[in-house]
Specification:
CATH topology: Nucleotidyltransferase, domain 5
Largest sheet: 6 strands, mixed
Radius of gyration: 14 Å
Helix content: 10-25%
Order of helices and strands: EEEEHEHEHEEE
Strand content: 25-35%
Distance between the termini: 31 Å
Structural class: alpha/beta
């Protein structure tokens, strides 16, 4: 199994569509056997699901994610665990131990780019976001 995590400075990235890097974890017998960083190479929303499928990801763990991206991941056959927070390595270990806290309803609703977007997930967003808890 290969798990992909939106990756930002060692933590789970909180906006799937702006992900610059994913951390990939190869899992065997319930443990991590290999880790690597995958650059999105500037690909945005629609192409990220394709990138993850081509990288062999079976599961994505992320923070906020929009409905279009959810659909694209589903079409690519990639299971989704949204609404996760914390250090990426800790989150993956928690998932493997069946103890991951996440919000299955975490989502991002996009508006005019100059106004940022509104995330319905409680996380620390940058200045260009209007964030609210779901």
């Amino acid at each position: 199994m290969r798990i992909a995590v939106t990756y930002e400075y060692g933590f789970v990235g909180q906006h799937f569509g702006r992900t610059e890097e994913f951390k990939l974890y190869d899992i065997e017998d319930g443990g991590i056997i290999k880790e690597q960083i995958l650059s999105s190479n500037g690909h945005g929303h629609g192409m990220l699901a394709v990138l993850l499928k081509e990288a062999g990801a079976d599961l994505l763990i992320c923070g906020g994610i929009g409905m279009g991206a959810r659909y694209a991941l589903n079409e690519a056959g990639i299971e989704l665990i949204p609404g996760a927070q914390g250090k990426a390595d800790d989150v993956v270990r928690a998932y493997l131990n069946g103890a991951l806290a996440y919000d299955p309803d975490a989502s991002c609703h996009h508006h005019d780019r100059e106004e940022g977007h509104e995330c319905h997930h409680d996380h620390g967003c940058g200045d260009d976001h209007n964030c609210h808890s779901a």
